[in-house]
Amino acid sequence: MKSSPLNSAEKFDSSRANEYARQSRIALAGYDACQDLAACMLAASLGNAQPANILVVGAGGTAQEIIAMASLEPDWRFTAVDPSAPMLEAAAQQLKANNLLERTSLHLGHVDDLGADQAYDAATLIGVLHHLEGDNAKRQILQSIRAHLKPGAPLIVAGNHYAYASQPLLLAAWGQRWRQHGASADEVKAKLGKILQGADPPHSEAAVQQLLHDAGFGDATRFFSSLFWSAWLTCKGALSRPSTPSEHRA
């Protein structure tokens, strides 16, 4: 969930895992609504009451996406992947509390660690892309997910987009969100500093679409937005030639 596929767990140590459930719900206004809608979008895409195996990438922390999907679709099973041991343990505790451990296979590591013959009916990548440094790392994780999806399978992608400094009003409103929950001016500064540390969001919604196209996914439908955050549904399509940096600038 952080700076590159190989060292992405570094920022998510025990202290951050312990505060993740509360902090994430403040940093993302509508956190639970986003997770609930993601479950609804996948159910609408796959069809109600159909058994399915769902790949959940970056599942550590609250495991809220699994909880939301499981409550809607009792016949779905889940493979939860995360490179941070403390975050995966936090997710396991939430799954245990919701009687979902038997429906979930937990994997400490990365998508590429999964067996090459494992193909899933759908996948989620929530709160991950903006923690991966550079477009190559972002494409790599999307390509890895694509390789483990059945033809036409849906993917939920959610995370921050826009370079933070490019949207000063949104950034200021983000700070006000913390103040709304009782943080002092110094605490707001510290919270924003931690959020911004090492983050590299795609710089626009078009940039997200391009990353998905480059990785072999189709056009994405946005279904949720909150300040810097948005969530989209796309589907596995045919691989196309990745565009060059000059084409991105055009």
UniProtKB/TrEMBL annotation:
A GO biological-process term: methylation
Keyword Transferase appears in the UniProt entry: yes
CDD domains: AdoMet_MTases (cd02440)
Domain of life: Bacteria
MF terms in GO: methyltransferase activity
UniProt entry tagged with the keyword rRNA-binding: no
Protein keywords: Methyltransferase, Transferase
Domain Methyltransferase type: 60-154
Protein name: tRNA (Cmo5U34)-methyltransferase
